[in-house]
Amino acid sequence: MNLANRGILATSWNGNTADEAMFAVTFKATTSGQLSELLTVNSDLVAAEACTSSGEVLNVALNFNAAEITGTNFELFQNTPNPFSGETLIGFTLPEAGAATLKVLDVQGKVLLEQKGDYVKGANQISINSRSLNATGVLYYQLESADQVATRKMIVID
Q1: Which tens digits make up the pLDDT trace of 93-133?
Q2: CATH number of the domain located at residue range(s) 4-156 in this protein
Q3: How confident is the model at residue 67 (pLDDT cuts 50, 70, 90)?
Q4: What element of type H or E holds 150?
Q5: CA-CA distance, 119 to 85, in Å (whole number)?
Q6: What does the DSSP assignment read for 42-92?
Q7: Pairing with 15, which of 22, 31, 48, 143 sits 20 to 30 Å away (CA)?
Q8: Which tens digits make up the pLDDT trace of 35-49?
Q9: Using CA atoms, how far apart are residues 36 and 156, in angstroms rounded to an integer?
C-alpha cells in the first residue's frame, strides 16, 4: 500500500520562495471530526522544519483558521500556538496588497519587535521566534496596514 492510500503525505522544498503559495493540497474527508485532530505535521519521513536563508531552523505548524483566512477584510488572528515557547504563527488578511507592519509590545507599550513588509491581498502569515522578543509573559502584537490597526494578546512561556 502506498503512503497516500494510508493518509500520509511527505513533502520537501529546496529553493527560494516567492510571495505566493508554493503548493496547495486538497483533502477529501473520509471521516467526520475536527481537522486539528485529524491532520498533523511530524518528522516520521521528512524533517518537519524550515530554514531561513541565513540557516536558522524554524518549526513547521498547521494553521486551522482556513475558513477565517479566506476572506478579504482586514483581520488579525490569534497567534498559534498560544501560549508558546520557541515559535508562533500570526495570521492576518488584507483587503488589498500592500505594506503592513507587525509590532510586538510589552505591557508598558515598549516595542520588542517590529517587522515591516509588503503582503498580498488575502491570507498572510508571520512567524515570530520567542528568542527575538527577549521577554516572557503577556505581550501584545499589533498589525498596522494602510488606515487600519488591530491588536491582540499573546503569552510567551519559558
Answers
A1: 999 999 999 999 999 999 999 999 999 988 899 999 999 99
A2: 2.60.40.1930
A3: very low
A4: strand 148-156
A5: 26
A6: -SSSS--EEE-TT--EEE------HHHHTS-S-EEPPPBSSSBSSEEEEEE
A7: 143
A8: 666 777 777 888 877
A9: 22
Region for residue 44 given its phi and psi (left: phi exceeds 0; alpha: psi -120 to 50; beta: otherwise): alpha
Q: How far apart are CA 130 and CA 36, in angstroms?
A: 23
d(CA 141, CA 95): 20
**Dist. CA 84–CA 96, nearest whole Å:** 30
Residue 148's pLDDT band (cuts 50, 70, 90): very high
d(CA 123, CA 65): 10
Please give the pLDDT value at position 15. Answer: 65
- 5-23 pLDDT, tens digit per residue, is 777 777 776 666 654 556 6
Give the model's pLDDT for residue 155: 94
Say how far apart CA 53 and CA 35 lie, in whole Å.
Answer: 31
CA distances (Å), origin 74, targets 3, 71, 95, 123, 150:
39, 9, 6, 10, 9
